[in-house]
Prior knowledge:
- The protein is of the alpha/beta class.
- Helix content is 40%, strand content 17%.
- The chain contains 18 helices and 13 strands.
- The longest helix is centred in the C-terminal third of the chain and has 17 residues, at 299-315.
- The site of adenosine-5'-triphosphate (ATP) has 21 residues, from helix 7, strand 12 and helix 15.
Amino acid sequence: MVESEAPHSGRMADVIPPVPRVSIHVFCESPSLSGMVEGAVADRRMQNAKVKSRMGGVRGALAAYREEQAPDVIVLEVGGDSATFLADLDGLAEFCDDSTRVVVMGRINDITLYRALMARGVSEYLVEPFHALEFVRAISELYTKPGGGVLGRIIGVYGAKGGVGASTVAHHLSWSIATKLDTSVVLVDLDLPFGTAGLDLNQDPLQGIAEAVFSPERLDSNMLDRLMTKCADRLSLLAAPATLNREYDFNEDAFDGVMGLLRGSAPIVVLDIPHVWTAWARRLLLNVDEIVLVAEPDLANLRNAKNFLDLAGPARTNDAKAKLVMNRVGVPKRPEIPLKEFTTAINVTASAVIPFDPKLFGMAANNGQMVAEIPGGAKLGEIILNLGRTLTGRPEMQAAKKTSLIESLKSTKLPFSFAKTT
Ligand SMILES: Nc1ncnc2c1ncn2[C@@H]1O[C@H](COP(=O)(O)OP(=O)(O)OP(=O)(O)O)[C@@H](O)[C@H]1O
Ligand SMILES: [Mg+2]
């Protein structure tokens, strides 16, 4: 028997915030809990989550993650005795990175088991019987409870010079992470008058980032959700209006509210930041979790990249250096600064080098497609996907195997804070 009484009067339901765009894998042992999960997945608060439910319990999870990437949340049912379950749970640690949350459910109502689970960094233990809504609440609270840790990682993509392909990189990167790395992404087009994310992703949304930033008093996570356009299974877009019937002058802190909400909405948020140097752009760039700096191999790009890194470095002493993407490399007949010279001069290695390929990028842009979808574009797609792997930490999965479950599950990320930067 899984179901407890349905929460009466709907009061309980009202106070459960929607579950963000996370991936959840559930490994059940009993048909009753599997049925409960089905009910929970149908709940409106779960509509943004990607849930995969299967049988097999913790052993099933161990087998699965030898083959596939661990999700944001793993839910396990305790099958047999608790000692065996705990031993298997320890084995699962090697497949979890520092953002994986684990929820356990089962019949054993025992404080010793509860303590053992908590000591291993498990976020919640749900004891049967419980209603599907309590399951939804447990998942929601992983991300919404005060002190529960912050979900989203914000990546700001910026061009060292206008027209170097920063938007192209931001859009392709978002698409690659969402469709190839199974991670939900929200792409935000901050080039309000001229943004091309809608065109590149073949969307023509009526609303987007402008409505969010011009109505801060009405903005909450529900409104933000409504302003997003779904471009692919895991890719949502907060599009730019791309119209010139008004000016877009913003205060330095104009995007603070949106960024706070975005951080709670998806594991990865990609900002396509136009090549401007305004107070708001500078503030965003200095406060994102990762900067991707896109440059072409010429002198103006080199000077600008150096100036930018000289400014960002001291302002972000506890952050990783900006990731450099060299784009449009190899324009015929153009004298270019060799890659080694460029990177040595600014003391950053290139995280990706994208060749100049006007045919493929041009076709992709005109068709509203990504280069990886165009015949002959697989190699370019792989370069951008590798950048996605670097930014989402996939290569570090091997290193994470050495950390204990406690270490890997307990660490939380810093909230998005907008310290004054001037
Ligand atoms: N590697 C590449 N090879 C060939 N063309 C490219 C490449 N990358 C981008 N482009 C093209 O370069 C042009 C400018 O790209 P994009 O709009 O992404 O630049 P940007 O840096 O965002 O510009 P802005 O300063 O206007 O924001 C587009 O036509 C795009 O298709
Ligand atoms: Mg751009």
